[in-house]
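Dear colleagues,

As part of the handover before I leave the project, I'm documenting each prediction I ran so the next person doesn't have to rerun anything. This entry is a single chain, and its sequence is reproduced below.
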Amino acid sequence: MTQRHPFSAMSLHQQRGFSMIEVLVTLLIVSLALLGTAGLQAYSMRLSQGGQFRTQAVFLAADLAERMEANRTGAVAGDYVVANSNVPVAASTACVDAVCAANALAGFDLAQWQNAIAATLPQSRWTVAQTVAGNPSTYTITISWVDRLSDNATTTAAFDNTAQVGVNADSTGERFFYTATRTIFDPI
């Protein structure tokens, strides 16, 4: 009686190249998983940068509000008003070493603040409006910037008043806004 071996010559012939196909399919699956992971990482970095811009806008608005609180006389007098602007002001060093008058200190504070916004937020604009004049005085601080939705955003976003959003010509960026209000009382 002859015993048959479970792997006959015919079965070995039929399985030739099968392990190579398995390896190629495995490589394809692993490479697709790595590409998906890289895309997810890039997307999370883009969202993280947008969150960083929002955080910076909050800090910058709080910085100006604190400067107004420190210079209440200048704030109540209306010295912190800035029209809609995107151009930083040349910073004066007059108030660094010496005591300044309230209006000079307000100009110094605004110059430092505007330079910080221009350096921190992309395509930024800002407005500081005195909504209630007198003592107490209320200010509204508005900061806007463009957050890129794709890597090829090179045009400046424009604000659309009807839709209350900003989109550039290529629809590759969106303008975000942060608004803060502060009331200042000078107990003279």
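The longest helix spans residues 18-70. Residues 54-184 form one domain.

All the best with the project,
I.
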